[in-house]
Amino acid sequence: MPETMIEAHGLTKSYGKPSDPVRVLDGLGLQVPRGEVFALLGPNGAGKTTTVRILATLTTADSGTARVAGFDVVADRHRVRRAISLTGQFAAVDATQTGEENLRMTARLTGLSRSHAKHRAAELLERFGLTEAARRQVRTYSGGMRRRLDLAAGLVGSPEPGVFFLDEPTTGLDPRSRRELWQVVRDLADGGATVLLTTQYLEEADRLADHIAVLNGGRAVAEGSPETLKARFPGHRLDLVLTGREAYLRLAARAVHHSPGTLTLGLPTDGTAAHARALLDEIDPHRTDVERFSVHSASLDDVFLALTGETAEEAAGETTGETTEPTEEPTHV
Ligand SMILES: Nc1ncnc2c1ncn2[C@@H]1O[C@H](COP(=O)(O)OP(=O)(O)O)[C@@H](O)[C@H]1O
Ligand SMILES: [Mg+2]
Hints:
The chain has 333 residues and is an alpha/beta fold. The chain is 34% helix and 26% strand. The chain has helices at residues 48-55, 77-83, 99-109, 114-127, 143-155, 175-190, 202-208, 226-231, 245-251, 273-283, 300-308, 312-315, and strands spanning 4-15, 22-33, 37-41, 63-68, 71-72, 84-86, 163-167, 194-199, 211-216, 219-224, 236-242, 257-259, 264-269, 290-297. Helix 6 links the parallel strand 7 and strand 8. Adenosine-5'-diphosphate is lined by residues 15, 24, 42, 44-50.
């Protein structure tokens, strides 16, 4: 097995009329070493699904090259398909059958003998925490269980420990199912699998990924470990509503967020009570300058602002004319 399980160089892709093309990928490159979890983080329309579809051989790039498990995604398309699991795409799960029946059937279709298929199904049910639900019809499964069965079905005929493409795996899941799926991804990684997942959630990328690439305008605008990326922008802000203009001006230089209209400043913090308390004591020792405070966690929008100077909505071409924080600007009626 190669050391680099997923790699892409200079991928470009445009949609639309040749006379009026819309460029979706603009020279995207990425490398995922074996056994790593890689998160492609970006807002709606950033090109995440397009990237996954190119890597999983469901569509082709206009230019650039990509290899998965050592195979070229165009020239060796069939080998790539056998090497990967793609959530919810290749797996045709029948809701009126049980989880076990589905996996046995899929295993038979990939050419395994009856006894091997039975064995493989049991192995995958165990691995994805579905053993207890194995004999239940899939239509009784929760969203999270359903998604795990999809993962298992996609892996039936693939060599272990596998290469996974998870395109927004937790979008639409309730918080509990989301946490379950996070655990599954961590277990996969612990077992040596290589995972490329896409997400709109900074928190998800932070929790799961060894390496994050922030996608904007069809290319990776920032890359690194979650720690490296977070060091480039504050993960949390302590937003302070000040009692007067004097205090505002005194503290403005330390702030990463300014809203003069409401006398509000946002100062970087790690979000812990200890730090917030120490910060408040330091900047307002006489307890006269700060009227109110709130902790604001970095959103994907903040990351984009910090990294690209535009908001996630703008990057997605979905400018609505509203500010993301309506309280920020004085409203004129
Ligand atoms: N088959 C297609 N035809 C035309 N435009 C497409 C097609 N697929 C995607 N797009 C456009 O490409 C852009 C990126 O889409 P996509 O890769 O799905 O982004 P993401 O998954 O990050 O939301 C979007 O603006 C989308 O409308
Ligand atoms: Mg998508």
